[in-house]
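hey all, quick one before standup. I had two proteins in the batch that finished overnight and I want to keep them in one place so we stop losing track of which output belongs to which input. First protein below, input sequence then structure tokens straight from the run.
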Amino acid sequence: MIPIMIVVVVLALIMAALFFYSKQKFEDLEIQLDEAEKNMEIYLEKKIELLDRFIKHMKKKRIKREFPDVLTYKKEKMDQLKTHSELFDIYTEVIQFVDEQEEKINDEKSISLLDQLSDNEDDLIATIKYYNEKATDFNYLCYHFPTSLMRHFLKYQTLELYRNERRETFEILKEK
């Protein structure tokens, strides 16, 4: 009778240790993911503002091109995944436009705005890469022993990863 009690107690202790281990691993990753999401939100808001300023600057210069109203993304409060995807497409469209209209977009303000957009895009991509790494770790925990057992008790779902593309911008140096 006593050996059975010892086995039951040992199994209970092992289960408790696994539960707390799993919970701690998930909580650590949740903190890192929350921080990455907050940083992404900041960079996405800055991207919206910079794209809006650039588009308004192009209108002042009377350069005709229809771009979507990027401020709607700020007002609508979509999820970050969708906002990032749509803003990335607009950013790519702006860069293609700049490549086509290079001779008209060589003033100091345009170049400054493009540099700020590029820097913000680099920061956003780095944050997305960090988020995707942590989300991959989180998803790994969801499917591998022993954390996969506790995932159901903790009611965790796998996370969707962000599209992480980088469009390289090249400057063509002109000889004068």
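OK second protein, same deal, sequence then tokens:
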Amino acid sequence: MKTIKTGTGLKRIEDQDPEFISLQLRVILQEHRTNLIDALLRSGLDRYIDYKFNRKVSGTLLDQLKARLVAIKNGGISMMRYQPLLDSVMKYDFVQLTNTLFFEEIDMKLKERLAQKELFHFPIQESQAA
């Protein structure tokens, strides 16, 4: 029996079959990522983006970023991305989930959209505004 400590408590994984371990872990990772994203959305994504990326966002862009997070939340877990966690679970009987890999995924998706906004942002020059 393997034990995974998450933000919501201890989760148990049957460890007879390595494939079954991966499937059970995927469910735990999905739940953990969902909880992190829900907390971000509840606590104010705009504040997180200001803190993390030193950017102020609102309106349409904020709605688009929220939609990206909802898409991540509802999407599947890539075990390639979370391979280090799977390796730890295979090796140890007790593993505590950290948020590092989850926030790397979240931040990457947010950065992609923020970079698109910068790429296509053409400020109006004074001579054009008149």
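Flagging for whoever picks this up: Confidence is low (pLDDT under 50) at residues 122-130. The two ends are 71 Å apart (CA to CA).
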